[in-house]
Every structure is written in structure tokens, then in C-alpha cells.
From TrEMBL:
Main subcellular localisation: mitochondrion
Family label: Belongs to the carnitine/choline acetyltransferase family.
GO cellular component labels: mitochondrial outer membrane
Transmembrane segments: 54-75
Listed SUPFAM superfamilies: CoA-dependent acyltransferases
Source taxonomy: Eukaryota, Metazoa, Chordata, Craniata, Vertebrata
This protein's pathway: Lipid metabolism; fatty acid beta-oxidation
Record keyword Cytoplasm present: no
Pfam families noted in UniProt: Carn_acyltransf, CPT_N
Protein name, entry field: carnitine O-palmitoyltransferase
Source species: Lates calcarifer
InterPro entries: Carn_acyl_trans, CAT-like_dom_sf, Cho/carn_acyl_trans, Cho/carn_acyl_trans_2, CPT_N
Gene3D superfamilies: 6.10.250.1760, Chloramphenicol acetyltransferase-like domain, Choline/Carnitine o-acyltransferase, domain 2
Length: 751
């Protein structure tokens, strides 16, 4: 194989005359350049660690402190108040012998200056942490800012005036506080009041009171002990017990998807779209590695170091997230074959045109799949325990291990799909629904669901992604995907005939076919059957709503998110004739290692509005408006409380975990955590609106993404607010439940 020969730097053969050594100078040069690139990255990481370590000061500020101390000493003044002299007395004897008195004084001044510099940095970091612990600004009404918040904004701007790196704020963020158990229980009871009859609510109140007076305080003490030494008392348990310990398929149940532009496909050439998309993703990875992305003010940027070169490996009891420092290739799937596609050569990132050229080689490759290769990806779509057993039995050594390592160590996974997708043809609405299902589960074997994310490039140039959930939440992937779409369409661009720009080095080695030796396909077919049954049961509907958007909602002085959430309560009531426990994801990025918290959107106020609107007795317009305003204000307050660490569900979840560790049962916690979320909702935030010029390019509107239903008899609703005049909804449910129909439920939103 040509690529195998080019990978060898030297060859030797033993002859009667001796050893015949042949060096490949081209290969040695590539090894040298790759080594230089690797060392540059190491130096860059060390430099970034130093800059982050002294933020909000700068490394150069040390020199300023030294000069200031030496200048005051030159003016016959002692800024140290005798400390320099004490340091000089405690210098090692060898320095007293080798240095003059003036040299000893200079060295002592340098030591004092360095200690003073470190003290100032610690003081600045402490002040920054205090400022970032102030959250009252969230609760203030728009246009009514208190003097305290104005002072806070001024001080924060002064302390963070230096351009921060991506993770500069990380160590200055406060730890997530543990709420008082009494407050959490009170908020919980208030959240379930509209869902329970009087006798059931009385019973739940008694359970909560018993829990608080007996077991609750004991569990709370253990939780506070954890919060003292843990960076975040929720995140590690949430990742492990909610995601990694789940033994059911992650396809549909956990993984989620993101879509391409709604109206535009930048190029119809599949290989070209893949070339630009892969390039944009690798440029984003470079920014993450160099920490060049701007952190969002007041909280850390939603990027994650585990975004690339990461996979979820299956285990018997729990899965494990594996992350590698860097990878110079991506894994590609096409028509049942797996390839390793190198995207760097001699330390240089290939141009988009070169990556297109390599992708086209894969598309033109006529070789058939090896036995057992075509549907191998179904192992990642089925139950986790069979996949773990199969991995140990057949993928722990030999050619299978090498090929599996190539997939798992790849920067990310790429599927070159042989179907066409998007809003097209005579049935655009139906095609959008099929597009969503394709990204959510595909054929159940043509995605690698364990990878941190997989990119899908369709035959007609449409694209999308499928993301694994355990390593980070949707805003992280949304930020990546926004950058990718914008870079692809507006920065990299295409030629008039739809190909990538740039030159091609046609001496590039062919992409490498990954080899497999699968002695038994029984488990592959078994996992595929489980995944196929799950996929066939999912009902997806994508609904671009363009009658009005946030522009019109804001004129009413109402939060767009609150407006949509109340609308969803109304739609569910019209669909099912009642209310249900509603989950809305909010971020806790104001705290170190914060992930998500639940906003229980079904409140007394929202139910009162819906009942008044749908009741038999007509409600006056003024009365409805008043109830709607109360409901929206209540929702905003619930969202703010969740963001600032005063949520309900993460606290109760951690108390439940502690009870399991202690081996004690709590009827209250058991009942709370078994309650189904029949309406699970999430907003996909638009975080980099500056990347998209919707005035000059109004068709470049993102469709957002979605996820599968959480409950068998419930709905999963994702929505993205695009520009001023559009809201895109993604609704999922299960065909097996006769009471849920995704398309019908969304119709109620627009009524």
C-alpha cells in the first residue's frame, strides 16, 4: 500500500555484503515538522497556563513591581518596612560569600518584589471572585439598575480590562452553593401544587416534612461536607449517574442533533461541503487549544477541553470518557467502509481543497465492505453491556483494536451519507421531519454514537451533527456548530462551480481503509435490532414558526423564553387536557464547572392563565393579560433562581445519591426522582449572532437542533429563537403512545 510505504522513514535489508540502509528524507522531514508542531503546542500550553495563573494581572506586571521597588530603594526609602533586610539575613551562606553586599540587597529586593507580586495577584483574584459571586443583577428589571449593580459593573470592567483567555475566569468563579434543605422542599412543594389533587398534595407535604425532620438534615450535612472540598458538588455525580451509568442505548435516549441552514445549502458537492466543514471544525479546535476564543462576560465560555479527540467507551457497570491531547486525523464512514483520513501533513493543516480531494477519493473508492464491517456501528447504538462484552472479546488486540483505536482517537467522526436531506421537493415539511430523524439515529449503524460528536454530510451537500451528551451540554456544541456554519459559508467559501478554494497536492497518500476481523456478527445484529426498534418508534416534527418572533414579543416587555414556555403549557393543555411536570434546562455557568439545572416551568401562575384562557367562562382581555404577565414574571424568576444555584432538582438528586451511599431509603426522594417529565424542553441559545449577517443574508437561518422524548408518553421540545421574526421548534414523541403526536402538538402552539 502506498500510504504504508510513505509512513516508513527508513528501510533496511540484510545482504551477504552487510546491511543495506535506505533513508527516506521526505518521511524524515515530515517527522521533523510534526515534532516542531508538537513542541510549539506544548510551549503554547505552558504560556497559557502562566497567563491564566496570574489573571487578572499580566506576567509583565512582575517587572513593573520590581522596577517600582528598586526605584523607591534608590530614593533611600524602604518600601518593605524592613522585610528586605530580614530576607537578606536569611540568604544561604554560599550567597553571602559569593555576592557583594549590594548584590545581596538586590537579590533580596527581587525576592521581596516577587512575593509582593504574588500577594497582589492573590488579592486581585480574591476581589474578582467576590465580584463574580454577586448575582443580584440578574433579578433587576430591564432599565432599572440599582447603584450597587452599577458600581459592580464598573469594578468588574476594571478588573477584567485585560483581554482574557478562554479559561481565564475559571478559577475565579465561585463554587455552587448548597441550598438550605427547607428552601428546596418549600420550592418543590410549590412546583407540584398545580399537578396534585388536595389529598395527594397533603400526602406529599407530610412526606416532605418527615424527610426534613429526620433523614434530610443528615444527608444535607454530608452534602455540605462534599461542597467544601469538591469544585462542584453536582457535576461529577450528574455526569456519572445520569449519563455514564445508564445501560440503555445512548442513541435517541441521550444523544442529540444539530441541523444545517434552513433555506441555503452552500454547495451541492458532497466532498466540497465535507472539506470546508472539516476545516472549520479543526480551526475551531485550534482556537480552543490556543484559548483564543473569547469567554462570555460574567461566566466562563461554554467550550470544553473534551470536545475533540474524545470518545465514550462502554463498561459493564459504567462507561468511561477517554480524551487524547491531539489527533491529526478524522474517522470517515461511507457505504459500510471505515477510513482514517489524515488532515495534517508535515505539521500543516491540509487546505479545504485538499481535504475535498481526499474525501472524493473515499467517495470514488469502489471496494466493498469487509465481512461484518458495514453494520459495526450498531454496537454503539444498542445496549451498553453487550457492546462492552463484545469490545473485550473481539476488540482488545490485533487488527480490530488498531482500527477501533483509529476511530476512538480521531478528532471526530464523519459520515458521508448516500441520502439527500433538507427542506426540499414537493413535501418540504415531511422532508424536514425525515431530516431530523436521520440526524437523530440515521440507519442505526452509519454513525458512531460514542464519539463526542459525529458530522453527517449528505449526498446533496446538506450537513448536520449528532452529539454525545455526557461530556458537555447542548450550548457547548451549539457554539461549535455556529462557528462551523459561519466559517464554512462566509469565510472559507466556494468557487463558482461549488468546490473548495485552495490548491491541491496530488501526492497526498490515499485515506487508509480500516481493517476488521469480525468472527461473529450475532451481537451486531442483536444491537441493531434493539436500536432499530427504538428508532422506528421516534416521531419527529420540525416546525419553523415565522408569524412573529422575539421582536414582537419584546415590544410587549415580556421575556421571549417565558412567552414560549407559557405557550408550550397552553399547547400541552389543549393536546392532553391537563398539565404535567415540565423540564426546562437552564445553565449554571455562573459557577465553577457548572452544567445545568431544571426550571419547573409548570407553575401555579401559568396554570391559572391557561385555565382562564381555556375555561368555559370567558375571561376579559384585561384579566388574561394580567394573568399572563404574572405567569411570565414567575417563569423569569424561576429561571433566575435556577441560574444562581437556588434550583430544586440537582439538590434533591445529590441528596438521593448520598442516601444510596449510606444505604438508607427515603420514600420522599424515591417518589420525587421517579416522577416522569412528560414535557421536556430546552432552548438552543444563539451565542455568536455577530457571525451571521441576517440583514444582508436573511436566508442563512439556522434550524437549531433537537432530542428524543424523555418519557414514553411525553414530548421532547427544543426551540431556537432566530433573529427577530422566527422561532424554530423541534418536537419528538413516540409512536407507541397513542396520546402523543408530534405534529398535532405543535399545531396547538400556533393556534
Amino acid at each position: 500500500m502506498a500510504e504504508a510505504h510513505q509512513a516508513v522513514a527508513f528501510q533496511f535489508t540484510i545482504t551477504p555484503e552487510g546491511i543495506d540502509l535506505q533513508l527516506s528524507y521526505q518521511a524524515l522531514n515530515q517527522i521533523y515538522l510534526s515534532g516542531v508542531r508538537s513542541w510549539k503546542k506544548r510551549v503554547s500550553r505552558i504560556r497559557n497556563r502562566v497567563i491564566k495563573g496570574v489573571y487578572p494581572a499580566s506576567p509583565s506586571s512582575w517587572l513593573f513591581v520590581v522596577i517600582a521597588i528598586l526605584a523607591t530603594m534608590y530614593m533611600r526609602s524602604d518600601p518593605s518596612m524592613g522585610l528586605i533586610a530580614k530576607i537578606q539575613q536569611h540568604l544561604p551562606l554560599s550567597l553571602h560569600v559569593s555576592l557583594s553586599a549590594q548584590g545581596q540587597t538586590m537579590l533580596s529586593a527581587l525576592v521581596f518584589s516577587t512575593l509582593l507580586w504574588f500577594s497582589l495577584i492573590l488579592a486581585l483574584r480574591f476581589c474578582l471572585k467576590l465580584l463574580l459571586s454577586y448575582h443580584q443583577w440578574i433579578f433587576e428589571q430591564h432599565g432599572r439598575i440599582s447603584n450597587t449593580t452599577k458600581v459592580w459593573v464598573t469594578l468588574l470592567r476594571l478588573l477584567s480590562s485585560r483581554k482574557p483567555l478562554l479559561y481565564s475566569y475559571q478559577t475565579s468563579l465561585p463554587h455552587l452553593p448548597v441550598p438550605a434543605i427547607k428552601d428546596t422542599l418549600s420550592r418543590y412543594l410549590e412546583s407540584v401544587r398545580p399537578l396534585l389533587t388536595d389529598p395527594k398534595f397533603k400526602r406529599m407535604t407530610e412526606l416532605a416534612n418527615q424527610f426534613e425532620s429526620n433523614l434530610g438534615n443528615r444527608l444535607q450535612r454530608y452534602l455540605k461536607l462534599k461542597a467544601l472540598w469538591a469544585t462542584n458538588y453536582v457535576s461529577d455525580w450528574w455526569e456519572e449517574y445520569i449519563y455514564l451509568r445508564s445501560r440503555s442505548p445512548i442513541m435517541v435516549n441521550s444523544n442529540y442533533y444539530g441541523m444545517d441552514f434552513l433555506y441555503v445549502t452552500p454547495t451541492p458537492v458532497q466532498a466540497a461541503r465535507a472539506g470546508n466543514t472539516i476545516t472549520a471544525l479543526l480551526l475551531y479546535r485550534r482556537k480552543v487549544n490556543r484559548e483564543e476564543l473569547k469567554p462570555v462576560r460574567l461566566h466562563v465560555h461554554p467550550s470544553c477541553e473534551r470536545m475533540f479527540n474524545t470518545t465514550r467507551t462502554p463498561g459493564t457497570e459504567t462507561d468511561v470518557l477517554q480524551h487524547w491531547q491531539d489527533s491529526e486525523f478524522v474517522a470517515v464512514y461511507h457505504k459500510g467502509r471505515y477510513f482514517r483520513l489524515w488532515v495534517y501533513r508535515a505539521g500543516r493543516l491540509l487546505s479545504p481543497r485538499e481535504i475535498e480531494y481526499q474525501v472524493q477519493r473515499i467517495l470514488d473508492d469502489p471496494s466493498p465492505p469487509q465481512p461484518g464491517e458495514e453494520k459495526l456501528g450498531a454496537l454503539t447504538a444498542g445496549d451498553r453491556i453487550p457492546w462492552s462484552q463484545m469490545r473485550k472479546q473481539y476488540f482488545s488486540s490485533g487488527v480490530n483494536k488498531r482500527s477501533l483505536d483509529a476511530i476512538e482517537r480521531a478528532a471526530f467522526f464523519v459520515t458521508l451519507d448516500n441520502e439527500e436531506q433538507g427542506m426540499r421537493g414537493e413535501d418540504p415539511a415531511g422532508n424536514l421531519d425525515r431530516y431530523a430523524k436521520s440526524l437523530l439515529h440515521g440507519k442505526c449503524y452509519d454513525r458512531w454514537f460514542d464519539k463526542s460528536f459525529s458530522i453527517v454530510i449528505y449526498k446533496n451537500g446538506k450537513s448536520g451533527l449528532n452529539a454525545e451528551h455526557s461530556w458537555a451540554d447542548a450550548p457547548t456544541v451549539a457554539h461549535l456548530w455556529e462557528y462551523t456554519l459561519a466559517t464554512d459559508a462566509f469565510q472559507l467559501g466556494y468557487t463558482e462551480d461549488g468546490h473548495c478554494k485552495g490548491e491541491v497536492d496530488r501526492s497526498l497518500p490515499h485515506p487508509q481503509r480500516l481493517l476488521w476481523d469480525i468472527p461473529s456478527e450475532a451481537q451486531v445484529h442483536s444491537s441493531l435490532a434493539v436500536a432499530q426498534a427504538l428508532a422506528d418508534d421516534v416521531d419527529c416534527h420540525v416546525f419553523p414558526f415565522s408569524e412573529f418572533g422575539k421582536g414582537r414579543i419584546k415590544k410587549l416587555r415580556i421575556s421571549p423564553d417565558a412567552f414560549i414556555q407559557i405557550g408550550l403549557q397552553l399547547a400541552y393543555y389543549r393536546d392532553r387536557g391537563g398539565f404535567c411536570l415540565t423540564y426546562e434546562a437552564s445553565m449554571t455557568r455562573l459557577f465553577r464547572e457548572g452544567r445545568t439545572e431544571t426550571v419547573r416551568s409548570c407553575s401555579n401562575e401559568s396554570c391559572a392563565f391557561v385555565k382562564a384562557l381555556e375555561g368555559s367562562s370567558a375571561c376579559s382581555p384585561e384579566g388574561s393579560q394580567c394573568l399572563f404577565k404574572l405567569a411570565s414574571e414567575r417563569h423569569q424568576n424561576l429561571y433566575r433562581m435556577a441560574m444562581t444555584g437556588a434550583g430544586i432538582d440537582r439538590h434533591l438528586f445529590c441528596l438521593y445519591v448520598v442516601s444510596k451511599y449510606l444505604g438508607v431509603e427515603s420514600p420522599f426522594l424515591k417518589e420525587v426522582l421517579s416522577e416522569p417529565w412528560r414535557l421536556s424542553t430546552s432552548q438552543t441559545p444563539v451565542q455568536q449572532i455577530e457571525l451571521f449577517d441576517l440583514k444582508n443574508h436573511p436566508d442563512y437561518i439556522s434550524l437549531g437542533g433537537g432530542f428524543g422524548p424523555v418519557a414514553d408518553d411525553g414530548y421532547g421540545v427544543s426551540y431556537i429563537i432566530v433573529g427577530e421574526d422566527m422561532i424554530n421548534f423541534h418536537v419528538s414523541s413516540k409512536y407507541s403512545c397513542s396520546e402523543t403526536v408530534s405534529k398535532t402538538s405543535v399545531t396547538f402552539i400556533s393556534v
